[in-house]
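Anyone have tokens for p-loop ATPase-like protein? Sequence:
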Amino acid sequence: MGSYHNDQPITGESESPDLLRREAFSEHLATVLRIAPSDDCMTASLEGEWGYGKTSVINLVKKSLGNQENGPVIVEYNPWLAGKAEALVQDFLVQFSSQLNIPDRPKEGLKAAKELLAYSELFNAMKFIPGVEPWASTVQGVFKVVGGATKKISKLKELDLIGRKNKINDLLKKLGVSIVVIIDDIDRLTPDEAFQVVRLVKAVADFPGTSFLLSFDPTYLASSLEKHGIENSNQYIDKVVQLRISLPLIAHNDLQKLADIELQNLSDKSLTDSFERDQERLSYLYHSYVKYLIRNPRELKRTFNHLRFVLSQTEGNVCFTDLYCLSVLAIKAQEIYHSLKESPEYYVGRKFDDSLAFDKREEVVEKNKDKRDSIITRAPGKDVVYLKGILKELFPLLEGSGYSMYGSDYDQCGRVASEKRLYIALHYQIPTGFASDTDIVSFLNGSINREEYLRRAISEGFVERLFELLHHNIEKANQENAALSLKALYTVFLDSPYLKSFEDAVHGFFGFEPYRNIMWLTFAFIKVLDEKEQFLFDLLQNPSFLPITADISRRLLVQLGRIETDDPRLKEEQWLSPEKGEEYLKTWSDMVASQLLDGGLADSIHASHIYFVFYRVSKEKTRQVFSKWINEELGIEKIAKLVGRCGSDSTNGPYTEISEDSLSELLDYQRLKELADVELSNTSQTLSNYLKAVYSSVLTGEKYYLNDATKGEKF
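Reply: yep, here.
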């Protein structure tokens, strides 16, 4: 990230160039300011709003004056250093005298400086009363210095301001140099100080051969004068200033060039590559709204200072366009920016801490319309239409439909219309339970240890967000890395206690189910995969991936027409040729049969899931397995584990519901019932709730919950 701006004006040198093309204007103004040593004092003003570059133009003027042959003496006065309004006159004269350093006429310069210092001392003796010319002596001022009527009358001559000033005028004419006095930032002074600066220029320091360049915001200065009882403030300024010059207008193209430079300095990589169509959207929002809000270099610098700070902590997790626009709001409409943090529901229809909200987002946004509008309309009138435009683009729900030409899956697009992205943008961090987009990209491309990262997701509780971001990004990864990432997911999750906790849990209507998300992710990847056959058959090499290949096999059954479906999209999908599809199913069912007969698979949390595909692929192989088990000791327990988990509901979690119709063509159901009755009647052993529920369902054909073996109700 580049460095932050400290609001320094340009100098016109190569390292601080004039990008707003004001050099010619400044050179002409410098020519006007250089008057002849014998000419009467002239005052010019450089006027413009804060932040439009008055000080930068002054620097260009000084550079031009310095380049002139036998250039004038430049006196810069900073009224900020005076400390209080009453000291401004004396302070100015002291600073003025100290800068009369004339190399080829040092004696004359020193004499004039001494006379100026003596002149300045008089303003200690006299009370500088607003509204009264400074050399009008007051009894209070006189007697404070001379001590009363008992002092010699000759002492009063020392208070002869006019005489002193005339002597200085003669010395300056003999000195034979032009003097340019520059007083900048008058609009940053208090009203009292601003008023005194204007008065001292006209009444105290209108020396021959001297020109003044005053820099101020005319609106502020007029207001300061009005506070001192001057009704026609602009006419008053006209009496003091003979030449009033406004800053040149800043062209949009020139300011855009500055913005382009700032964008280039933000980062050495493309900031709009993280999210699709972000560059296009940035250009649209800039030219439609931003360029009409950011009107001067100071606002531009402050915007990019804010953006640089936010970007350093959120880059890659929120689309750049939205971060940029939020920084514009932070600089130009702080009240709106604050309301986004305090009341995000006004804009996205959700609070940041709403873990479960049932109101429609559109209704929440509409309900808060008046509150939102009252905040927006308090912005300056010339800004309101552009602020509304930016807000409409950032938060499409403000328009009612929520439609956006740049995509409506706001989370996937990294846009702050998603409250998750808005939270990151406004809090400058990834909240607890969230994954970072940049980490997801690193996970997909393998630059971090994939399995370690997945285990961290489980331990730190951001699995749900992990899957959301994987859905957004997996198609962007190259296919080799995406395949490796999926295999890492299978390895870490399939037999983990974390996944088992979800399989045994009571699921609400909107509950997160990690296994279902793994399969959605897998199917999304297969759909866009070029070499589907290689990937699908490669998964068969690992027996621990049997739950995944079970779901793949079920999808192949649909594609081959062996399972009916009402979804036309599934019918149209063809992952493998019919011959390869049948080969895949045979290989998979052989592997399942082998794993079941060898032992361990029946104890897997995925056993029932695999079974329900297995018997659809090959009833013959299923019969072979059941025929062997039903005659083995503890064989009924293996069968129960395999067929028991039929479903899950929001009442009491997973349940079993077994009927004779479902199993009679695969095994001797009467024999199964006899064995189940024996197991339930055996008081010498303690059965798990799971087995109790399955055996009870075998006997009755009714629904039982696996968690506590209670009987379920029919709905």
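Residues 125-157 have pLDDT under 50 and may be disordered.
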